Amino acid sequence: MTPGDAVMCLAAGSVELALDDAPESMRWQWFADLLDSQWGLTGRLRPILTEQIISELEQVARMCRASAQHSLDPQVWISAYQSTAALVEDPMVISTDALHLALSAANDIALEAMDTPHPDFSVAVTLAFEALTSVAGVDREVSRSWILTAIGEWVARTESAHAGLRSAQSRANADNRQIANSSVVSAGCSEKAPLKVRGNA
After folding, report:
1. CB of 26 within 8 A of CB of 156?
2. Angle at the Cα of 6 (from 3 to 8), degrees rounded to 5?
3. What is the pLDDT of residues 16-51, one digit of tens each?
4. How far is CA 48 from the centre of its chain?
5. Which of 41, 65, 98, 179 has the fewest other C-beta atoms within 10 Å?
6. pTM (2 decimals)?
Protein backbone atom coordinates (compact mmCIF):
# COMPACT_ATOMS: atom_id res chain seq x y z
CA MET A 1 0.00 0.00 0.00
CA THR A 2 1.37 3.41 -1.00
CA PRO A 3 1.22 6.42 1.37
CA GLY A 4 -1.47 7.89 -0.89
CA ASP A 5 -3.55 4.72 -0.57
CA ALA A 6 -3.02 4.82 3.18
CA VAL A 7 -4.38 8.35 3.40
CA MET A 8 -7.46 7.47 1.37
CA CYS A 9 -8.09 4.48 3.67
CA LEU A 10 -7.66 6.91 6.55
CA ALA A 11 -10.20 9.22 4.97
CA ALA A 12 -12.66 6.39 4.45
CA GLY A 13 -12.42 5.45 8.10
CA SER A 14 -10.60 2.15 7.57
CA VAL A 15 -7.92 3.12 10.05
CA GLU A 16 -6.82 -0.46 10.58
CA LEU A 17 -6.18 -0.71 6.83
CA ALA A 18 -4.44 2.63 6.50
CA LEU A 19 -1.53 1.76 8.74
CA ASP A 20 -1.96 -0.97 11.36
CA ASP A 21 -3.87 0.03 14.48
CA ALA A 22 -3.62 3.79 14.03
CA PRO A 23 -5.54 5.44 16.87
CA GLU A 24 -8.85 7.08 15.99
CA SER A 25 -7.69 10.26 17.73
CA MET A 26 -4.72 10.48 15.36
CA ARG A 27 -7.10 10.34 12.42
CA TRP A 28 -9.13 13.31 13.71
CA GLN A 29 -5.95 15.30 14.47
CA TRP A 30 -4.63 14.78 10.95
CA PHE A 31 -7.89 16.03 9.42
CA ALA A 32 -7.79 19.06 11.72
CA ASP A 33 -4.26 19.86 10.56
CA LEU A 34 -5.19 19.28 6.93
CA LEU A 35 -7.60 22.19 7.33
CA ASP A 36 -5.60 24.38 9.69
CA SER A 37 -1.83 24.11 10.01
CA GLN A 38 1.33 25.40 8.40
CA TRP A 39 1.21 22.53 5.87
CA GLY A 40 -2.62 22.52 5.63
CA LEU A 41 -5.11 24.73 3.84
CA THR A 42 -4.89 27.79 6.08
CA GLY A 43 -1.10 27.74 5.88
CA ARG A 44 -0.70 27.10 2.15
CA LEU A 45 -3.61 29.24 0.95
CA ARG A 46 -3.45 32.08 3.45
CA PRO A 47 -2.45 34.76 0.89
CA ILE A 48 -5.75 34.26 -0.96
CA LEU A 49 -8.07 33.37 1.93
CA THR A 50 -10.55 35.85 3.35
CA GLU A 51 -10.89 36.26 7.11
CA GLN A 52 -14.33 34.67 6.94
CA ILE A 53 -13.04 31.55 5.17
CA ILE A 54 -10.08 31.29 7.56
CA SER A 55 -12.54 31.48 10.45
CA GLU A 56 -14.66 28.66 9.03
CA LEU A 57 -11.66 26.42 8.35
CA GLU A 58 -10.29 27.05 11.84
CA GLN A 59 -13.68 26.34 13.42
CA VAL A 60 -14.10 22.96 11.71
CA ALA A 61 -10.47 22.13 12.56
CA ARG A 62 -11.15 22.89 16.25
CA MET A 63 -14.14 20.57 16.11
CA CYS A 64 -12.00 17.79 14.61
CA ARG A 65 -9.47 18.25 17.42
CA ALA A 66 -12.26 18.11 19.99
CA SER A 67 -13.58 14.94 18.33
CA ALA A 68 -10.18 13.35 18.94
CA GLN A 69 -11.09 13.49 22.64
CA HIS A 70 -14.84 12.84 22.59
CA SER A 71 -17.84 12.74 20.25
CA LEU A 72 -19.50 16.07 19.58
CA ASP A 73 -23.20 16.79 19.59
CA PRO A 74 -24.45 16.34 15.98
CA GLN A 75 -26.13 19.74 16.25
CA VAL A 76 -22.69 21.36 16.47
CA TRP A 77 -21.71 19.74 13.18
CA ILE A 78 -25.03 20.73 11.63
CA SER A 79 -24.33 24.35 12.53
CA ALA A 80 -20.84 24.14 10.98
CA TYR A 81 -22.30 22.52 7.86
CA GLN A 82 -24.88 25.27 7.47
CA SER A 83 -22.40 28.11 7.91
CA THR A 84 -19.88 26.64 5.45
CA ALA A 85 -22.67 25.79 2.98
CA ALA A 86 -23.87 29.39 3.01
CA LEU A 87 -20.39 30.77 2.43
CA VAL A 88 -19.48 28.26 -0.28
CA GLU A 89 -22.29 29.71 -2.42
CA ASP A 90 -20.85 33.22 -2.21
CA PRO A 91 -20.09 34.44 -5.77
CA MET A 92 -16.59 35.55 -4.75
CA VAL A 93 -15.85 32.06 -3.38
CA ILE A 94 -17.33 30.30 -6.41
CA SER A 95 -15.21 32.41 -8.76
CA THR A 96 -11.94 31.21 -7.18
CA ASP A 97 -11.38 27.46 -7.49
CA ALA A 98 -8.94 27.12 -4.58
CA LEU A 99 -11.25 28.98 -2.19
CA HIS A 100 -14.30 27.03 -3.30
CA LEU A 101 -12.53 23.68 -2.97
CA ALA A 102 -10.99 24.50 0.43
CA LEU A 103 -14.29 25.58 1.91
CA SER A 104 -16.05 22.60 0.31
CA ALA A 105 -13.59 20.30 2.10
CA ALA A 106 -14.59 21.78 5.46
CA ASN A 107 -18.24 21.60 4.47
CA ASP A 108 -17.94 17.91 3.57
CA ILE A 109 -16.23 17.10 6.88
CA ALA A 110 -19.11 18.74 8.75
CA LEU A 111 -21.67 16.92 6.57
CA GLU A 112 -20.11 13.51 7.18
CA ALA A 113 -19.45 14.08 10.89
CA MET A 114 -23.03 15.05 11.69
CA ASP A 115 -24.29 11.68 10.44
CA THR A 116 -21.84 9.19 11.92
CA PRO A 117 -19.11 9.05 14.62
CA HIS A 118 -16.78 7.32 12.13
CA PRO A 119 -17.25 9.36 8.93
CA ASP A 120 -15.93 8.78 5.44
CA PHE A 121 -13.72 11.78 4.63
CA SER A 122 -12.44 10.55 1.26
CA VAL A 123 -14.30 13.34 -0.56
CA ALA A 124 -12.93 15.96 1.87
CA VAL A 125 -9.36 14.75 1.31
CA THR A 126 -9.83 14.89 -2.46
CA LEU A 127 -11.27 18.42 -2.25
CA ALA A 128 -8.46 19.62 0.02
CA PHE A 129 -5.77 18.18 -2.25
CA GLU A 130 -7.48 19.68 -5.31
CA ALA A 131 -7.53 23.05 -3.52
CA LEU A 132 -3.77 22.81 -3.05
CA THR A 133 -3.28 22.14 -6.76
CA SER A 134 -5.64 24.93 -7.86
CA VAL A 135 -3.85 27.96 -6.46
CA ALA A 136 -3.26 30.43 -9.27
CA GLY A 137 0.40 31.17 -9.91
CA VAL A 138 1.69 28.14 -8.01
CA ASP A 139 3.78 25.68 -10.00
CA ARG A 140 2.34 22.16 -10.23
CA GLU A 141 5.50 20.65 -8.74
CA VAL A 142 5.18 22.95 -5.75
CA SER A 143 1.55 22.02 -5.15
CA ARG A 144 2.46 18.36 -5.58
CA SER A 145 5.12 18.75 -2.89
CA TRP A 146 2.45 20.26 -0.61
CA ILE A 147 0.31 17.13 -1.01
CA LEU A 148 3.28 14.84 -0.42
CA THR A 149 4.03 16.78 2.77
CA ALA A 150 0.46 16.23 3.99
CA ILE A 151 0.74 12.52 3.25
CA GLY A 152 4.14 12.42 4.91
CA GLU A 153 2.65 13.95 8.06
CA TRP A 154 0.22 11.05 8.34
CA VAL A 155 2.88 8.41 7.70
CA ALA A 156 5.31 9.98 10.20
CA ARG A 157 2.66 10.13 12.92
CA THR A 158 1.61 6.53 12.50
CA GLU A 159 5.21 5.34 12.36
CA SER A 160 5.85 7.19 15.61
CA ALA A 161 2.78 5.58 17.16
CA HIS A 162 3.91 2.16 16.00
CA ALA A 163 7.38 2.74 17.41
CA GLY A 164 5.79 3.63 20.73
CA LEU A 165 3.65 0.49 20.63
CA ARG A 166 6.67 -1.65 19.81
CA SER A 167 8.64 -0.06 22.63
CA ALA A 168 5.79 -0.62 25.08
CA GLN A 169 5.45 -4.22 23.92
CA SER A 170 9.19 -4.77 24.30
CA ARG A 171 9.08 -3.37 27.84
CA ALA A 172 6.11 -5.59 28.64
CA ASN A 173 7.90 -8.63 27.25
CA ALA A 174 11.02 -7.76 29.25
CA ASP A 175 8.96 -7.34 32.41
CA ASN A 176 7.27 -10.68 31.79
CA ARG A 177 10.64 -12.37 31.30
CA GLN A 178 11.95 -10.77 34.48
CA ILE A 179 8.92 -11.98 36.43
CA ALA A 180 9.31 -15.46 34.99
CA ASN A 181 13.02 -15.54 35.79
CA SER A 182 12.35 -14.31 39.30
CA SER A 183 9.85 -17.10 39.79
CA VAL A 184 12.37 -19.68 38.60
CA VAL A 185 15.11 -18.28 40.83
CA SER A 186 12.74 -18.08 43.78
CA ALA A 187 11.67 -21.68 43.26
CA GLY A 188 15.26 -22.89 42.92
CA CYS A 189 16.55 -21.00 45.96
CA SER A 190 14.13 -22.42 48.49
CA GLU A 191 15.89 -23.95 51.50
CA LYS A 192 16.86 -27.57 50.87
CA ALA A 193 16.73 -30.34 53.47
CA PRO A 194 20.19 -31.63 54.54
CA LEU A 195 21.31 -34.52 52.43
CA LYS A 196 21.31 -37.70 54.49
CA VAL A 197 24.24 -39.99 53.87
CA ARG A 198 24.11 -43.56 55.11
CA GLY A 199 26.46 -44.06 58.00
CA ASN A 200 26.29 -40.45 59.18
CA ALA A 201 24.96 -39.86 62.70
Report:
1. no
2. 115
3. 434 445 677 888 999 999 999 999 999 999 999 999
4. 26
5. 179
6. 0.74
